[in-house]
Amino acid sequence: MHGLRNPGPFLLTILLCTPLSTHAHAQTLSLPSPSNPITSPPPLIQIAALEPAGIELPDAPGLQSPSPQSSSFMPPDQQTAGTISGTVLDASGAQVEGALVSIQFLDSRPQRTLRTDATGSFNFTAVNAGTFKLEVISPGFASWVSSALVLLKGQQYELPTVTLQVSSATTNVDVNFTRHDIAEEQVSLQEKQRVLGIIPNFYVSYTWDAVPLSSGQKFRLALRDAYDPVSLAIPAIIAGIEQSQNSFSGYGQGASGYFKRYAASYGDGFIGSMIGNAILPSILHQDPRYFYKGTGTIRSRALYAMSTAFICKGDNGHWQPNYSFILGNFASAGISNLYYPSTDRNGAGLTISNALIDTASGAASSLLQEFLIKKISRGIPHDPKP
Questions:
Q1: What is the pLDDT of residues 139-163, one digit of tens each?
Q2: pLDDT by residue (tens digit) across 308-327?
Q3: 3-class SS at 14?
Q4: Is residue 238 predicted with pLDDT exceeding 90?
Q5: Given pLDDT bands bounded at 50, 70 and 90, which one contains residue 28?
């Protein structure tokens, strides 16, 4: 505060101007009157608040508007603007720095964005009143969007803590199955097929358009069938019957005769399977399996079943003469002459008769496959498609 060096003239001027105005300034003195005794502090105390002499007084002593340069002045739009603030955390309660926070106004205003600081905080200033939504996006987290919120004039809106959840990783894996892979799956299903749940029935496909087998799969299936415990047990039963009937007497009796008969019986099946189901089908590109039909009249199904002893599917999907099965029967019958007793060999006649018997038994086996074996087998696909 500045004290007046010579307050006399200045006080006189104020006293003269007071009667001329009906609205005195807040710092203007009023003369005492009989009806209005002075109850306020002495005039000199208020006068001391005035500026030093020499300041030009306004023309009218009425209330003046504050200057735009005054520190208390604020434009109308700033006086009604508010703020929106908050904090972004992850599920463990740690601050998320650098998260992108966006205000999406529901009117025509443009979107505003900023990033959270090191403490995970954000603060939008000078936000006009209205309805808005907040969206928070951060790498590795699921995006977060608020419901519609309302900011009032001049409100300092503090949003509840935003907790981001780790986004669930979604990986798209394109799996391209090759024909070999599909055939492998189909063969695996066939290896579960057993008549009465015991006898292997690996060479029947209940999928009409099954993928052709590779050479390796043909050999694997033949060996799988040959080394199955049931395939090893059946020749033992046959050898016992032959021993009791003294069939192939050249083998003799006793343990030696029994094991010779067992080896011959097992050899017939093993050689026939390897030649007819693996070697020749691989060379001639033919499929050694029986494809179950299951539809049509009994006559058509019976004719189809018996015909499979003479025709088969090629690896190209077309039907063709079943060279593998027929030639395999003759080859195995001819080889059997090498280990059967000389007294039981009949040269070409025995070979041909055995080959024809094997071919006829193949046709009969196909008839059983078409009409009976499926009903008494286990491991059959639930919905085979012909």
A1: 989 999 998 888 888 889 998 999 9
A2: 999 999 999 999 999 999 99
A3: helix
A4: yes
A5: very low
The residue type of 108 is: S
Q: Give the Å distances, CA to CA, from 29 to 3, 10, 54, 61, 64.
A: 17, 12, 19, 12, 18
- Rg of the chain, C-alpha, whole Å: 54
Q: CA-CA distance, 109 to 111, in Å (whole number)?
A: 7
The two three-digit tokens of residue 74, written as one number:
């604020």
Judging by DSSP bridges, how do beta strands 162-164 and 82-90 pair with one another?
Answer: parallel
Strands 311-313 and 319-321: antiparallel
Contacts made by residues 128-133, CB under 8 angstroms, sequence distance 24+:
128/77, 128/80, 128/81, 128/82, 129/80, 129/81, 129/82, 129/153, 129/154, 129/155, 130/105, 130/106, 131/105, 131/106, 131/107, 132/84, 132/103, 132/104, 132/105, 132/106, 133/103, 133/104, 133/106
Query: ∠ CA(316), CA(321), CA(323), 5° rounding?
Result: 100
Q: What is the pLDDT of residue 201?
A: 94
What would the pLDDT profile of 352-384 be if each residue is shown by its tens digit?
Answer: 877 888 889 889 999 999 999 999 999 887 654
Whether 48 and 11 have beta carbons less than 8 Å apart is answered as: no
Cα–Cα distance for residue pair 325/304, rounded to 1 Å:
16
Q: Tell me the C-alpha distance between 295 and 206, whole Å.
A: 12
- Count Cα neighbours of 260 within 13 Å in the Cβ-side half-sphere: 17
- Tokens 């004719």 locate to 303
Q: Please state, in angstroms and as integers, the Cα–Cα distance from residue 59 to each residue in 27, 62, 64, 164, following that order.
A: 16, 9, 11, 65
10: helix, coil or strand? Answer: helix
List the beta strands (DSSP E) in 128-223.
130-137, 144-145, 149-151, 156-158, 162-164, 194-195, 199-200, 204-205
* Residue 363 DSSP SS3: helix
Q: Which of these ranges, 138-152, 164-178, 205-219, has the smallest mean pLDDT?
A: 164-178
Tokens read off for 49: 């608040």
Other Cβ atoms within 10 Å of 34 Cβ, number: 5
